[in-house]
Amino acid sequence: MQRESKFKVLSVAVIFTALSLVGFETQKISPRLQEKMDNAVQTTFEVEEFTLEQLPVDVGLNAKTPAEMGGENLFNILKDGNCLGYVYLGEAPSMKKVFDYVVLFSPDLSIKKSKILIYREDYGRQVGSQRWLKQFIGKKSGESLAYVEDIDAISGATISAKSMTLAVSNVLLSMQVLEENNFFE
Question: Are strands 82-93 and 111-118 parallel, antiparallel or unpaired?
Fold first, then answer.
């Protein structure tokens, strides 16, 4: 009986370890998403050639930020060794699925542009319109945004618009945390 119990404990430990390793594995950016992100950088910063340098945020600092900053989602945009700005790649919930978006920052950490890269729902696509997204331009690190109060509502895309507003607000607050901790120096 004791031997059977030890086997069960060992089996559970092996399964838990395997699941933990899979769960904490860094997800890679898909080629399609990378292409869309690159295109957003090119058109926003009006450059043909540039380099994206991943900016890894350590676990302790990431724990202080409202947006996830510890994965492959924060990059320095470089051209000829000079910083053009930063790009944050995120994922936010829509009604039943998630959508991928970027927030592009000037070197002073104000939003230069935000863009929905991949939207996976049939409804709510209006959230991707540049007419609506331009409301985020000029917002600075540390600003908190509220749907309807600071950002206009969208009929037919309420869930996605609220989600995008909250996501961008959390990214702005997270950039402030990074800035206060001299991350960008």
Answer: unpaired
Q: What is the pLDDT of residues 33-65, one digit of tens each?
A: 999 999 999 999 999 999 999 999 999 999 999
Calpha distance 99→80 (Å, rounded): 32
Rounded to an integer, what distance in angstroms lies between the CA atom of residue 37 and that of residue 41?
Answer: 6
Q: Which pLDDT tens digit goes with each residue over 67-104?
A: 999 889 999 999 999 999 999 999 999 999 999 999 99
Please enumerate in sequence order all residues whose Cβ is within 8 A of that of 82, keeping only pairs 6 or more positions apart, or say none.
none
Do residues 109 and 140 touch, judged by C-beta distance below 8 A? yes
Given a contact cutoff of 8 angstroms between Cβ atoms, the answer to whether 134 and 114 are in contact is: no
Q: How many residues does the chain have?
A: 185
Instruction: Pinpoint the alpha helices (H) of 24-157.
Output: 31-45, 59-62, 130-133
Gap between the Cα atoms of 5 and 61, Å rounded: 41
What gap in Å lies between CA 146 and CA 24, rounded to an integer?
A: 32
| pTM for this model (two decimals) | 0.84
What is d(CA 31, CA 67) in angstroms, rounded to the nearest whole number?
23
> By the 8 A CB rule, do 52 and 27 touch?
no
- CA dist., res. 93 & res. 39, Å (int): 23
